[in-house]
Design brief:
The chain has 25 helices and 2 strands. The chain is globular. The longest helix has 35 residues. It has a single domain, classed as Amino acid/polyamine transporter I. The two termini are 36 Å apart. Helix 13 packs antiparallel against helix 21 and helix 18 crosses helix 20.
Length: 513
């Protein structure tokens, strides 16, 4: 009861600050010149970041950004090193999620399923709706094939980082868990004799995560959700700040309660929103069953034989892998923060649960979205020229659904808001843990207030360079994270071999009898 009262008082303080500051934010965002200047500033910063993360590693062909190659090579390496664990453990992952291997007394803040839904709430979002549409806008239907490949390979990356997060997490005196890439970078590399390097990489990861959480994990979500919702509610066209304040209030109610409240909310929202969205996709796909072979044919043939030749092939591959990275976040290191909090006896066990994320997020949901967009022809329709030009992915997907079900854009708008909301509450936790790692537990509320303010900012600015900046930060997280995965993957391999031996011998079954 005492905690509830404390949460109420904190919420009241935060909301008072929010309404005071949001008024200032709205007034400051109104002048076009101010927004334009800020957008231009971030455009310059983006140029420097792109020079680091996106320099071309394949001169002479269409650009293959370094960070995309880094993710691809890393995922392929880990998949072979872990003996294709991504394809072998579906049944066991399902059994863990069902609770079969739940051992009493295991330390943690949430269940394996809650950790999975929290991580999924961050990944199953507008990347599946807006991101897929943008990939097809730029790379054509063939980008879908490479998204699926990236999703399958990314399952091993997720397994590795979630296992390491469990191995190197810290249970603090107040019961809160500090875990994720920042912990296995600092503590894991210290074991290798790279103490200072590990600390520097951990700080870099935290800075990138905090920036990404405020932008792509927050402002971008609000901006894209608003783009879909205002088509149904004209009020938000003229007064977008109202939408921002509503979303900020809902986010504040959840994130002030910490990971347990976030996990409970995600556990309730994620299965519902995924079911609604997939049912709608299946309805449209089956309603156009005769067009399915043609759509699948385009996905496969345009993945390998684009009109632009080799350069075009690289371009399609890059779009597929880039959007898969944004969607599933495999190799980025963000989800490891959520999986570190799970109550499991063996770190590998949570890693096996984590590998289901890219499959659900990318292989299933993204593919469904892509099929709807391709079957309806929304990506190359004359009516969507402006949406394509402005990269309004969520609006394009809404148009695709609307061509098949006239009233469905209303349902999709609700889905978009739920997707955006769930992504925001999960990313608030990722950013908050990184902020706390750098500044201590006592500074947590400061980050939460900043995060809530950015919700309103996202509703009143559409500055593309600012959003591109946060995209760069999220992709940049893969750089320090994969250094940790490369350096520490041997320990994961040993733990996996030991775990599989116990599973085969029946020892794990005896533990739960």
């Amino acid at each position: 009861m005492k905690n509830n009262k404390n949460d109420f008082h904190l919420l009241r303080i935060v909301m008072t600050l929010l309404f005071m500051i949001s008024s200032t934010v709205v007034m400051a965002a109104e002048p076009v010149e101010t927004t334009s200047t800020l957008n231009d500033l971030f455009g310059v910063i983006n140029g420097y970041l792109a020079a680091v993360f996106f320099f071309d590693v394949m001169p002479g062909a269409q650009s293959m950004p370094f960070i995309v190659a880094w993710l691809v090579v890393g995922a392929v390496f880990l998949t072979f090193r872990m003996s294709f664990i991504n394809l072998r453990m579906f049944r066991h992952a399902y059994q863990i999620l069902r609770g079969k291997y739940q051992v009493p007394g295991a330390e943690g803040e949430v269940t394996s399923f809650q950790a999975l839904t929290t991580a999924l709430s961050a990944t199953v979002g507008l990347g599946n709706i807006a991101g897929v549409a943008i990939a097809i806008m730029i790379g054509g239907p063939g980008a879908t094939f490479w998204m699926i490949v990236a999703g399958l390979l990314g399952m091993t990356s997720k397994f590795t980082e979630a296992t390491l997060a469990q191995m190197y997490r810290e249970v603090r005196p107040d019961g809160h868990i500090m875990g994720g890439a920042m912990e296995y970078l600092s503590r894991g590399l210290a074991e290798k004799g790279w103490s200072q390097t590990g600390k520097v990489l951990a700080i870099i990861f935290c800075i990138l995560t905090i920036g990404g959480s405020l932008g792509a994990g927050n402002a971008f979500q609000v901006s894209q959700a608003l783009g879909a919702v205002k088509q149904q509610i004209p009020l938000f066209v003229d007064m977008p700040e109202i939408f921002g304040i509503i979303m900020a209030t809902l986010v504040a109610i959840v994130i002030i309660g910490g990971i347990r409240r976030i996990a409970h909310t995600a556990e309730a929202i994620v299965p519902t929103m995924v079911t609604i969205y997939l049912l709608a996709c299946i309805w449209i796909i089956l309603s156009n069953a005769t067009m399915i072979p043609d759509a699948i044919g385009k996905i496969i043939t345009e993945a390998f034989t684009p009109a632009a030749g080799v350069g075009g092939l690289i371009g399609v591959l890059v779009q597929g892998f880039k959007r898969a990275a944004f969607s599933s976040e495999a190799g980025i290191g963000s989800a490891a923060i959520a999986h570190a909090t799970a109550r499991v006896k063996y770190p590998v066990r949570q890693g096996i649960v984590a590998l289901m994320e890219p499959f659900i997020d990318t292989v299933v949901i993204c593919t469904m979205t892509a099929l709807v967009i391709i079957i309806t022809g929304a990506y190359n329709s004359p009516e969507t020229t402006e949406l394509v030009a402005n990269k309004q992915g969520a609006a394009l997907t809404a148009y695709a659904f609307g061509t098949a079900i006239s009233w469905f854009p209303i349902i999709l708008s609700i889905s978009v808001v739920l997707f955006a909301f769930s992504t925001m509450i999960a990313w608030s936790y990722y950013g908050e843990r990184c902020w706390t790692y750098m500044f201590g537990e006592s500074s947590t509320m400061a980050y939460k207030v900043i995060f809530i303010i950015f919700v309103v900012i996202g509703s009143v600015t559409s500055a593309s360079n600012i959003l591109d900046f946060s995209d760069l930060l999220i992709l940049g997280m893969a750089l320090p994270n994969f250094i940790g995965l490369y350096m520490l993957h041997g320990k994961v391999r040993e733990a996996l071999s030991s775990y599989l031996a116990k599973l085969k011998s029946g020892e794990l079954d005896k533990e739960v009898q």
